[in-house]
Amino acid sequence: MPPLLFYFFALITLGFGFMVVTGRNPVTCALSLAASFVGLAALFLSLDAYFIGVIQILVYAGAVMVLFLFIIMLLDIKTEEGKKLNLPAIVSGVLLAVFLTLQIFMVAGSTDLAGKTAATAPLALAEASAKIGKAALPTITKDLKAGELPDAKLIGFTLFDQYGFHLQVIGLLLLVGTIGVVVLSKRERSPAP
Amino acid sequence: MITLGHYLVVSGMLFALGLAGVIARRNIIIVYMCLEMMLSAANLALVGFSRFHVVNGLPDYTAQSLVFFTITVAAAEVAVGLAIIVALFRSKQSVDVESVTKLQG
């Protein structure tokens, strides 16, 4: 990815993220968050993580943001105008964020992995197909030999090959979450006589 | 040239923005949005490490599996959290975090 595009999408991600934090109207905040997630998805694509990028748009910018907007409009939340700002919280929040950012700037450059670029850590697809060999499915090796990165296939292979149990636990978690939401949103009846 | 450090810095700044929002904002829905931002920032760092830690000529797909799990958990968390917010709004008629101080003692 050209450096210019990286800076452009990083600016979109951080700029709209800043609008989420500072916006007064919840609807503006929710739409800014969706835009920020789209920028983040572009950064994922630039890291050759196509599947994760698409999932980011489908799940976050799609499902989660619709849920947020739905709740905001259902509850009919007014803007916070007229309320006085919580000054100590704002000052401490900004100070903590600045401190954390400075710390990350110092740490990010100090690991030996941090200097790696796409040129110094290249993907070797043809070589990978030989190395993976019989362990992978034929469709994966075929794609690798053709010089394409079968991103979704490799993630699916990793998930079902190594993390099958964890995948089922996650499925159970979603089931528990669904039941919890139904229980939480059921209106309490008056106690039985 | 864009290095892993660039991605880590963007991820860290996004996380710091989310943290500032969680501390400074009083609208509980916006606090939730900032929490989502912090989770995504962690995802960006994970995907960055995955891409630049090349195993057998391929990105490290263990990290991307973890991102997949994180996104799933985040979706479940949003659903339950918003249900709690709706229940809260029903009893308090407000989404201000300072309207909920019952556990403060």
TrEMBL record, chain A:
Q: What is this protein called?
A: NADH-quinone oxidoreductase subunit J
Question: Any idea of its EC number?
Answer: 7.1.1.-
Q: Where in the cell is it found?
A: Cell membrane
Q: Which GO terms describe its cellular component?
A: plasma membrane
What does the organism's lineage look like at the top? Bacteria, Pseudomonadati, Verrucomicrobiota, Verrucomicrobiia, Verrucomicrobiales
What Pfam families does this protein map onto? Answer: Oxidored_q3
The membrane topology of this protein is: Multi-pass membrane protein
GO molecular function ontology, one term from the record: quinone binding
Q: What class of enzyme is it?
A: translocase
Keyword annotations from UniProtKB, A to Z: Cell membrane, Membrane, NAD, Quinone, Transmembrane, Transmembrane helix
Which protein family is it in? Belongs to the complex I subunit 6 family.
Q: Which reaction does it catalyse?
A: a quinone + NADH + 5 H(+)(in) = a quinol + NAD(+) + 4 H(+)(out)
**Source domain of life:** Bacteria
UniProtKB/TrEMBL annotation, chain B:
This protein's superkingdom? Bacteria
Q: How does it sit in the membrane?
A: Multi-pass membrane protein
Name of the protein in its database record: NADH-quinone oxidoreductase subunit K
Q: Which reaction does it catalyse?
A: a quinone + NADH + 5 H(+)(in) = a quinol + NAD(+) + 4 H(+)(out)
Lineage at the top is:
Bacteria, Pseudomonadati, Verrucomicrobiota, Verrucomicrobiia, Verrucomicrobiales
Where does the chain cross the membrane?
Answer: 6-23, 30-54, 66-89
State its location(s): Cell membrane; Membrane
Task: Say which family it is in.
Answer: Belongs to the complex I subunit 4L family.
Gene source species: Prosthecobacter vanneervenii
By its UniProt entry, which NCBIfam families does this protein fall under? PRK05715.1-2 (NF004320), PRK05715.1-3 (NF004321)
Instruction: Write one Gene Ontology MF term.
Output: NADH dehydrogenase (quinone) (non-electrogenic) activity
Q: Which PANTHER family match?
A: NADH DEHYDROGENASE SUBUNIT 4L-RELATED (PTHR11434:SF21), NADH-UBIQUINONE OXIDOREDUCTASE SUBUNIT ND4L (PTHR11434)
Subunit structure and binding partners: NDH-1 is composed of 14 different subunits. Subunits NuoA, H, J, K, L, M, N constitute the membrane sector of the complex.
Role noted for this protein: NDH-1 shuttles electrons from NADH, via FMN and iron-sulfur (Fe-S) centers, to quinones in the respiratory chain. The immediate electron acceptor for the enzyme in this species is believed to be ubiquinone. Couples the redox reaction to proton translocation (for every two electrons transferred, four hydrogen ions are translocated across the cytoplasmic membrane), and thus conserves the redox energy in a proton gradient.
Keyword tags: Cell membrane, Membrane, NAD, Quinone, Translocase, Transmembrane, Transmembrane helix, Transport, Ubiquinone
Under Enzyme Commission nomenclature, its number is 7.1.1.-
